[in-house]
Amino acid sequence: MTKALSVWITSVLIVLGIPPSAGAAELLMLEQPGCVWCARFNREIAPAWPKTPEGQRAPLRRVDITGPWPADLADITRERFTPTFVLMENGREIGRLRGYPGDEFFWFRIDELLAKLSPASQG
């Protein structure tokens, strides 16, 4: 799916009042331009994320904290520290990881968060 199509589908869902993550888990990545730790995550983890079991259970959704806050995230506390990863399920926050601790520790911490998902989202 192209990025333009994905954005269009998300926009339609929001207009219809359906959160894009309804019935599913997603991993928000709160980021901002110039964030060196975001760039490191993008090199070390991002390319593999969608191909992993973790990425299949919780697809990555990027949110630029310097831009408008998405309407479907109105109940989610904003962050000034980036990157911050927020695990969401059915539109609510399950937990968050502030900062990027390096590739090995990241996988450990994300696995801890994913273990908190409901059995339906466990995959």
UniProtKB/TrEMBL annotation:
Top-rank taxon: Bacteria
Protein name: Transcriptional regulator
Organism: Manganibacter manganicus
